[in-house]
């Protein structure tokens, strides 16, 4: 199976690199600067699961190349609209597109450009970052990909994807309930990113602060009240379960959005929080969600202005 990884950043570089390590036919769609870096140093992974360095095949958008069997899409939500034209020429009628973005809204965006049958549901579970040298650093136990047909069926092509990931130094599994799994992660990551960014803190101090856990639970209830209108199969006890799992995390755990915010980088609050506000009914108050979105929108505007001034 020929695989195109869109982006050789922290997530795409890690999962794509593990497939290269296994011996799969993988090409990375990158920008010229990243291409030169990879030619010079190779793809470098530093991980608790084992380090890896190797030359990799790269492709610049617009260069001639045969279509691929699988496109592994690992970009930030705010880069998706720009990324689609870059890989669209390498998609044919049988190409599978496996997005690893958080949230749900990106599925609608992809369906606007590709037939629904081409787009799988997918999730990436990993805490990873790209250091200044362009090396991928990954220091947590979790490094998993979950995927499945959007309609929940078991198909021969999903078996092919299972076979692709089997034996790679990473976790992977298929799911017959990928929609539900994506919604559950969406609520988890929206709450985690929203609360850590609002309070500018890792998770431990938030939950141990006065009214911290109470506020976190109220926020989860707000998120759930919107999500269950879109996905009625979500269990009513989901907010409590997410809070319980969140409390089990390392106290020093930060959301990737907070790490981006601390670095002055763009954030995905429109994709996470703005979308839920847009989907909500007019009578829903959602005070915590709206406060978080308003706060992060101020940062987002300042970040854009700062970037434009450079």
UniProtKB/TrEMBL annotation:
<dbReference type="InterPro" id="IPR013328">
    <property type="entry name" value="6PGD_dom2"/>
</dbReference>
<dbReference type="Pfam" id="PF08546">
    <property type="entry name" value="ApbA_C"/>
</dbReference>
<comment type="similarity">
    <text>Belongs to the ketopantoate reductase family.</text>
</comment>
<comment type="pathway">
    <text>Cofactor biosynthesis; (R)-pantothenate biosynthesis; (R)-pantoate from 3-methyl-2-oxobutanoate: step 2/2.</text>
</comment>
<comment type="function">
    <text>Catalyzes the NADPH-dependent reduction of ketopantoate into pantoic acid.</text>
</comment>
<dbReference type="InterPro" id="IPR051402">
    <property type="entry name" value="KPR-Related"/>
</dbReference>
<dbReference type="InterPro" id="IPR008927">
    <property type="entry name" value="6-PGluconate_DH-like_C_sf"/>
</dbReference>
<protein>
    <recommendedName>
        <fullName>2-dehydropantoate 2-reductase</fullName>
        <ecNumber>1.1.1.169</ecNumber>
    </recommendedName>
</protein>
<dbReference type="GO" id="GO:0005737">
    <property type="term" value="C:cytoplasm"/>
</dbReference>
<keyword id="KW-0566">Pantothenate biosynthesis</keyword>
<dbReference type="InterPro" id="IPR013332">
    <property type="entry name" value="KPR_N"/>
</dbReference>
<feature type="domain" description="Ketopantoate reductase C-terminal">
    <location>
        <begin position="178"/>
        <end position="298"/>
    </location>
</feature>
<dbReference type="GO" id="GO:0008677">
    <property type="term" value="F:2-dehydropantoate 2-reductase activity"/>
</dbReference>
<dbReference type="InterPro" id="IPR013752">
    <property type="entry name" value="KPA_reductase"/>
</dbReference>
<feature type="domain" description="Ketopantoate reductase N-terminal">
    <location>
        <begin position="3"/>
        <end position="151"/>
    </location>
</feature>
<keyword id="KW-0521">NADP</keyword>
<dbReference type="Pfam" id="PF02558">
    <property type="entry name" value="ApbA"/>
</dbReference>
<dbReference type="InterPro" id="IPR036291">
    <property type="entry name" value="NAD(P)-bd_dom_sf"/>
</dbReference>
<dbReference type="GO" id="GO:0015940">
    <property type="term" value="P:pantothenate biosynthetic process"/>
</dbReference>
<dbReference type="InterPro" id="IPR003710">
    <property type="entry name" value="ApbA"/>
</dbReference>
<keyword id="KW-0560">Oxidoreductase</keyword>
């Amino acid at each position: 199976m020929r695989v195109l990884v869109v982006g050789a950043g922290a997530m795409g570089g890690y999962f794509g690199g593990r497939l290269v390590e296994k011996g799969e036919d993988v090409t990375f769609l990158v920008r010229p600067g990243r291409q030169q870096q990879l030619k010079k140093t190779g793809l470098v992974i530093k991980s608790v699961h084992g380090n890896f360095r190797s030359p990799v095949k790269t492709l610049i958008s617009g260069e001639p190349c045969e279509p691929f069997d699988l496109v592994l899409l690992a970009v930030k939500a705010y880069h998706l609209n720009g990324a689609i034209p870059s890989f669209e020429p390498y998609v044919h009628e049988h190409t599978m597109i496996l997005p690893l973005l958080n949230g749900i809204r990106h599925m609608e965006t992809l369906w606007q450009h590709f037939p629904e049958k081409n787009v799988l549901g997918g999730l990436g579970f990993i805490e990873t970052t790209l250091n200044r040298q362009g090396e991928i650093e990954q220091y947590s136990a979790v490094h998993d990909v979950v995927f499945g047909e959007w309609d929940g069926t078991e198909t021969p092509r999903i078996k092919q994807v299972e076979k692709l990931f089997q034996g790679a130094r990473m976790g992977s599994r298929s799911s017959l309930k990928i929609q539900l799994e994506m919604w559950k992660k969406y609520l988890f990551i929206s709450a985690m990113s929203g609360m850590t960014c609002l309070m500018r803190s890792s998770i431990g101090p938030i939950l141990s602060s006065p009214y911290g856990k109470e506020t976190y639970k109220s926020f989860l209830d707000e998120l759930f009240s919107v999500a269950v209108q879109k996905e009625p199969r979500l269990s009513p006890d989901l907010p409590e379960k997410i809070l319980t799992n969140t409390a089990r995390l390392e106290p020093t755990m930060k959301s990737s959005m907070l790490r981006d915010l601390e670095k002055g980088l763009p954030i995905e609050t429109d994709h996470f929080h703005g979308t839920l506000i847009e989907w909500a009914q007019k009578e829903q108050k959602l005070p915590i969600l709206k406060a978080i979105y308003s706060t992060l929108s101020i940062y987002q505007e300042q970040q854009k202005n700062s970037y434009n001034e450079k």
